[in-house]
Amino acid sequence: MDEQAMAERPGLRVRPGRLVGVVATLVATVLTVGLTQGWGRTDHAPVASSAAASSAAAVPTAPVVLNGTDDAFIQLLIPMNEGALALIDQLDTRPADADPSLRALLGELRKAHQAELRDLRGLLAAGNMPELNIHEGHQMPGMVTEASLAELRAAPDAEVPTRAVALIRAHLAQTVVLCRGEQTSGESPELKALAGRIQQARAAELSTLDNRPGAPTTASVG
Question: The whole model's pTM is what?
Answer without folding.
Answer: 0.71
